[in-house]
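Regression test case RT-17, inverse folding.

Input:
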């Protein structure tokens, strides 16, 4: 299993300046970060280069989902930016996931980024699957199925909620990266399947993504450390 960092801070900011100022102001320079659509579509590869200069590990979260050839060619370009982790939607199917892997290998110069497959977004729930996507199977079974198919395609890990991390760990050798993390008593926002860092650890999650709980905190540095420590407690040797 390729190595993920225990905690990626989601840089969900409108501009690169806001993101970089936040990291500097809160003494978070150099931590593993996730760059998503909001920031990347504004700043493009320049923000990746800036973050790399500041020695951040980067998860570029663009959740690709298109025909296999387009995804292969896009992944070639993402790999050439030397980011550490990238992802696709498992719903794009097996040919697309395999094409993503090939594209990464073609574009990487030495270091092939970790490839994750998003299973079911943590903002979705059973009712949404059923009513909007006409998927009648239990959500956990859908996640397990997507994980097992992803594994066959050479994907390194999945993105899933803490609720399904255990199923993924039981049925695959994949890493499980879990968003939807909240400290006890925190707000859920638009996330439907949320859990605490302690629960993430108990359920076998290998890594977490946290955005708003850190970004909107009164003391982001303290909250970052609290979340990381809560997750690593008792499993310090496996998540260094
Ligand atoms: O603010 P919050 O901690 O809910 O942020 C979660 C971050 O993780 C967002 O950047 C979101 O795009 C991302 N994400 C997610 N669910 C997934 C994959 C990524 O919430 N399945």
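Golden output:
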């Amino acid at each position: 299993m390729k190595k993920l960092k225990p905690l990626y801070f989601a840089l969900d900011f409108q501009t690169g300046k806001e993101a970089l100022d936040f990291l500097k102001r809160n003494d978070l320079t150099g931590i593993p970060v996730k760059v998503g659509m909001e920031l990347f579509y504004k700043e493009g590869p320049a923000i990746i280069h800036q973050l790399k200069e500041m020695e951040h590990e980067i998860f570029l979260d663009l959740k690709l989902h298109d025909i296999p050839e387009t995804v292969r060619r896009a992944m070639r370009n993402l790999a050439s930016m030397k980011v550490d982790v990238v992802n696709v939607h498992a719903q794009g199917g097996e040919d697309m996931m395999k094409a993503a892997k090939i594209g990464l290998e073609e574009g990487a110069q030495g270091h092939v980024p970790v490839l994750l497959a998003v299973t079911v977004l943590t903002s979705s729930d059973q009712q949404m699957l059923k009513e909007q996507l006409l998927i009648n199977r239990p959500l956990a079974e859908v996640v397990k199925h997507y994980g097992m198919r992803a594994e066959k395609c050479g994907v390194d890990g999945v993105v899933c909620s803490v609720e399904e991390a255990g199923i993924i760990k039981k049925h695959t050798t994949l890493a499980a990266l879990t968003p939807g993390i909240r400290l006890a008593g925190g707000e859920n926002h638009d996330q439907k399947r949320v859990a605490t860092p302690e629960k993430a650890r108990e359920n076998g999650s290998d890594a977490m993504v946290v955005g708003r709980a850190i970004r909107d905190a009164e003391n982001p540095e303290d909250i970052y450390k609290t979340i990381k420590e809560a997750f690593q407690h008792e499993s310090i040797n496996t998540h260094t």
